[in-house]
Amino acid sequence: MSETVAEVRKAVDRLYGHRVMRRRAPEVTSEAALRGARASAALAGADWPLEEVRRRSDFSASDQDRTVGAALRISAEAGQLLSVWRTSPLQVLARLHLLAVGDGDPAAGRPRQEGERPEELFPLQLSAVETGGAVVAEGAAPADLPPAPAPAEVAARLDQLAQLLVARTAGAPGGAPALVTAAVVHGELLTLRPFGSHNGLVARAAQRIVLIAEGLDPKSICPAEVGLVELGTAAYREALAGYAAGTAEGMTTWLSHCGRALGLGVRESTAVCEAMQRGMV
């Protein structure tokens, strides 16, 4: 795993050293946010072309429209929540969920209660997102994910996660690398599914906030969500099943998957920088 961490760190550093970043960093950040939001929505079942997301202004007509709108709202505000994240990560998670569902929903920002089941993380579909562009054998079964834990267990595990994150902010010694911390937050939220809906959007946004807060991607220019789409939902689900199993092998698979996704996000933004340098953007 240390090799993956080192490789990702080098790739991110190369991107930050690109000459375009010296002059147009805010533009790169905006483009990364847009591409990351589009990709996160695609993973949630709303796979729109990038230019359609860029063009549209109304995201209220259908379930897919609302999913894309939710991803965009979360992406737009995630970077502004750092100060709160450092002291109260659970408050930020609630805010992200409220952004996703809107003020009018009584469940906005509220964790699941007894008897409430969360929405599916991976809507059933066979598309380029589902397979990562690969050919999947007919009838191939997706990796099994355990049922979402009961609300009492969710609350206990979220509280423990929050304590660990706040301790890192306070400078507790012996911390894990930023990539590992971000992957654990991402995997834990997907496994717990604390809210009734939009858990995937919230988990991927939380990973992005960790990468910013931990200093690996302070300008938020590395859209790991794009990499997750490129690798495919089937691989995403398989890696998550490994994390949820709690084994050392499963954890390694999950961390490697998150590292590969971030590396592909770096490649995406590098291409954006190259296009800007050639005057194409």
Q: Assign the CATH architecture.
A: Orthogonal Bundle
Report the average pLDDT across residues: 90
Anisotropy-based shape = globular
Strand content: under 5%
Low-confidence stretches: 134-140
Based on secondary structure, the structural category is mainly alpha
CATH top level assignment:
Mainly Alpha
CATH homology-level superfamily:
Fido-like domain
Order of helices and strands: HHHHHHHHHHHHH
> How far apart are the first and last residues' alpha carbons, in Å?
36 Å
Gyration radius from CA atoms, angstroms = 18 Å
Number of beta-strand segments = 0
Amount of helix? 55-70%
Briefly summarize what is shown:
The chain has one domain (2-277): Fic-like fold, CATH 1.10.3290.10.
Helix and strand layout, with pairings?
Layout: H1 2-16, H2 19-43, H3 50-55, H4 63-78, H5 82-87, H6 89-101, H7 128-131, H8 151-169, H9 178-192, H10 199-213, H11 224-231, H12 233-245, H13 248-277
Domain Fido: 88-257
InterPro entries: Fido, Fido-like_dom_sf
Protein name: Fido domain-containing protein
